[in-house]
Structures are given as structure tokens and as C-alpha cells.
Amino acid sequence: QLQLQESGPGLVKPSETLSLTCTVSGGSISSSSYYWGWIRQPPGKGLEWIGSISYSGNTFYIPSLKSRVTISGDTSRNQFSLKLSSVTAADTAVYYCARHPAKRGEPAGTVDYWGQGTLVIVSS
Amino acid sequence: DIQMTQSPSTLSASVGDRVTITCRASQSIRYWLAWYQQKPGKAPNLLIYKASILESGVPSRFSGSGSGTEFTLTISRLQPDDFATYYCQQYFSYSTFGGGTKVEIK
Asked: Given a cut of 90, is residue A107 above it in pLDDT?
């Protein structure tokens, strides 16, 4: 059974960099059948896709966050990570890591597996 | 960026009701649209993808339709387990979610 688990600090100071890691078990991030991504949800609000990384290491970011976001993968540890720089209170959210099925000829956007989510609060 | 607008934002219904939620895209997304159900404190759960294809394991009372810019999610007979918030998601260009529709007990 596939499992995704987010880890990282739950509190980050304004202007600093938010760093989260997603550990995947029961599946490989090197599989050509999937992309791996991050989605966030501010408390009481809707979902926002942040970006994703393909099995070959190509990255895709939402334009509004592109200048602050880096997603990377570590195949040796079967993990992928999110870094979001220069955070403000507006970045306070539950952050989910996610698996995106990648079918030939189709965009890899749906999410079939989610992590449980981790709350990150930006505050001094 | 493609904007997704869901309506209504809140819907009051009773068990057994037929429920319809609408999602509109700011430009054509063909049929690259998904629907998710989210319960409080939990991650969302994929219900439908490619506008009308039911994800494995999802009850058949859920159905999706539409193409281009207008899409609907229908629950044919609302069950107690269906009271939740529903989100649409376009994945034609990057990805964007709608604002959500909370289905509450009437």
C-alpha cells in the first residue's frame, strides 16, 4: 500500500525558507507512471497546487509562486522535497504531498494518493 | 492563469436528494477536469477525472459531465457519508482548484 508522509518544521519565521520532505513508501518516485507534487490549503480555505516533479526530474511550478519555489527529488531515499523562500503569513497552510498519475498523452494533474498533510505556520 | 469558479459555495440538502455542483473555467480546458471530496481534517479524495470517468472504488451515485468551460458533479441520491466539501480541479494548464462547495445537512 502506497504511503506518503510529510515532515519538516511546523513553525517558520517570516522571510525565512520553508522546507518540507515527503517520504514515499510502497512505491518508487522513479516510476515513469507518476509525477510527485505539493498542494497546500490555508486554514479554512481552498486548495492550491504548488508544483510537481516528474520521474525524470523535470519540474513544474504554479506561475504565482515560481520565483520562490523549488521541488527536488532524492531517488536514493525515495523522497521529494519542497522549498519555499521568503515566506510570509500568507504561506501559513496545511501542506500536502501528492502522487500524480502520468498517462501517455494526458496531463499529469490529478492526485490519486495524498499525504496526511502537515500544518506550517509562518510567525515570528 | 486559468481560474475555476464553483457554485454554489454552500448547498443544503437532505439524504436521498439529487445534488448538482457546477464548475466553470475561465477558458477552455477541454475535459481535463477532476472532482474531489474532502472531509474535515482529511486530505481530499479523488472522485472523477477527465470530466466524467469515475475513479476506482467511488460509488456510482457520483457522476461528472461537461467539456470546454462548464462542468457538473452530480450525486444522484445523497447519502450520510456524502456531507463534505467538494472541489473541482483543472489540469489542462498547470493546475487550479475551484473554491469548493460545502454540502451540508438541511
From this structure: no
- Per-residue pLDDT tens over the stretch A40-95: 999 999 999 999 999 889 999 999 999 999 999 999 999 999 999 999 999 999 99
Give residues with Cβ within 8 angstroms of A50, minimum separation 6.
A37, A38, A39, A40, A61, A62, A65, A69, A71, A82, A84
Which bin fits B28, alpha (ψ -120 to 50), beta or left (φ > 0)?
beta
Q: What is the pLDDT of residues B8-18, one digit of tens each?
A: 999 999 999 99
Q: Is A67 exposed, middle or buried (0-12, 13-18, 19+ CB in 10 A)?
A: exposed
Distances (CA, A) of A47 to A41, A42, A57, B78: 5, 8, 24, 24
For A79, what's the count of Cα atoms within 13 Å in the CB-facing half-sphere?
13
Tens digit of pLDDT for each residue in B39-77? 999 999 999 999 999 999 999 999 999 999 999 999 999
Binary contact (B55, A47; C-beta < 8 A): no
**CA-wise closest residue to B74 among B30, B4, B11, B5:** B11
Dihedral pair phi/psi, residue A27, rounded to 5°: -170, 165
A38 touches chain B (CB under 8 A): no
Q: Which residues of B touch A (CB under 8 A)?
A: 1, 32, 34, 36, 43-44, 46, 49-50, 55, 87, 89-92, 94-100
Q: How many CB atoms lie within 10 A of CB B85?
A: 20
